[in-house]
Amino acid sequence: MFTTNVRRIVKTGFTNFWRNGIVSISSVLMMTVTLSVIIALLLSSVLFSLTLDRIKNEIDINVYATTIATPEEVLKLKQDLEFLPEVDSIEYISREQALANFKDRHRNDEQTLQALDELDENPLGAVLNIKAKEISQYAGIAKFLESKTALVDAEVSVIEKVNYYQNKIIIDRLNKIINAINKFGVALAMILIIVSILITFNTIRLAIFISREEIKIMRLVGANNSYIRGPFIFEGIMYGVISAIISVILFYPLLFWLNPFIENIFLVDLLSYYFSHILMFFSVSFVAGVLFGIISSVLAVRKYLKI
Amino acid sequence: MIYFDKVTKKYQDGIKVVNDVSLTIEPEEFVSIVGHSGAGKTTLLRMLLGEEVPTNGVVFFESTNINKIKKNQMNKYRRRIGIVFQDFRLLPNRTAYENVAFAMEAAGRNDNEVVSDVPHVLNLVDLGEKHGSFPRELSGGEQQRVAIARAIVNQPDVLIADEPTGNLDPDNANDIIKILQKINELGTTVILTTHNKAIIDLLGRKRVITMEGGEVVRDKNGGYVL
Question: With a cut of 0.90, is the ipTM above it?
Answer without folding.
Answer: no
